[in-house]
Amino acid sequence: MAKKKKNLKKQNIKKAQKQKKRREKLKQQSPPQQGRAGSDLLDRVDMALQLIREGDLRTGKKILERLEEKYEDSFAIPAVHYGLGVAAITEERYSEAASYFEKTVAVAPDLVEAYLTLAFAYKMQHKMPEMVQALRQVAKRGKRGSHEVTQAKEMLNGLENILKDDGLTLDEYLETAYFFEHGMYRMESGDWEEALQSFEKGLDLFPNDPRSYGNMGLCYAFLGKREQALDAVDRALALDPDDEPAHLIRVFVNGMKEGERLGERLNAIKDSGNYRDGEEERLLRDYLEEQGFLPGKNEPARQNPPAKKRESKKKAASPVQEKKGLRFSQYRITDEPLPEPVYDRLPKDVKDRIQELMVTAQKNPIRAIPELQELKEKYPDVPNIYNFLAVAYSTLGDQKKAEAVIRENLAKHPDYLFGKLNYAQICIAKEAYEKIPEIFDNKFDLKMICPERDTFHITEFVTFCGIMGKYYFWTGQIDAARQYNKSLQEAAPETRDARELNRLLNSKEAKVVDRMKKLFGR
Q1: pTM over 0.70
Q2: Residue 379 in contact with residue 346, Cβ under 8 Å?
């Protein structure tokens, strides 16, 4: 009995430590506001989670739903979303759970527990590439040797061992997933030829994928190529004899004539109400509507380009290095899109699609990557495309490919400011601080780097100040780092760069440097 009580006490201590760690991470990644009210909110979230763990799901969930409604703009809302995700997991509503965890990590990206449970939600939906992406984020952001990192690495290693049987590495598997997702997207858009090309590229890497052959059969059927459709479907069935959609497609396409298109045939049968061979045609139409390959009640919504913000310009001061210290140069910052001659010359439909892919690269990188690769090859002089492709790889957790694209972009477009900024961020992450002055040609101010410009985008300004602040901090020049931090806090205190730099300057390392300067009179 005493042993049982001791074990229970240990479990309670571990739970309390996890709760404390989660609260600290949320506070670190959130602006210092709302004081005691925010702390009370976290207490109520912890109480709701405890109720869910003890089996009182209904009460715990009700508390969380009320908190979400009442404190929508609170800095602690990621904790509420995390709790609602846990509730959804408990109810086995995995799609809803994934949605809540995605909201959590979007605001609190270092909360590795959310990435780990997100990976589980993806796994239960058979979204394996997304699961890999979430697990890689745990391994990247978590503390080395922690329970979360150990678990994530074990899952990744297990998946790699399974893939070895198919002769695939994990990265090759992800690449086949890129092509498959892109093919599906093209099918939803009715671009049958382009969809075929994507599935063929995926089969070059993994020739034993029945889904790709089945989808190719559909593409050929929609194009009126009966014999090729039957051949592709037969290959799918040879690999997976229980593939029900492939059986449906085969029965139906077998009754078509060469040159007759699947969509036209289905519409003609629907209009006449004459269904042959029992329910095959009706079942096939329902299946195609569910997949979004035919117009129907379940047709997926198309992603719209992000709406443009109204112009909002203000003066920005940025520190400039001089022999005697720092001075400030003046320019304007804006959140409005700035003129980009090469990009602006693109056809309107291409620009609209790139804007859509910019959003998709952050939300669903697997879908965005193949099309961004195609656009990069077609428009090699547009640096923005390289930038969004690097973002997609980074979101996916494939830092090696992200860095390769960033280096390629900088080599081809040496004057592209975001190219310099992206490469500088890599150097900061690798602690190669000596390269920062070289990247910016020993210029420590945006106006000096781009003297022809009087206006900079807010993201350029924030990223640059964050890089310079970290460079000066880690090279021991704390006062200079504080100047950049001051600029960030005045212009964009809510951004991640501003919070990270501010946290660094309030860390133990900064205090040690300050004490040493006082001791040695520097």
Answers
A1: no
A2: yes
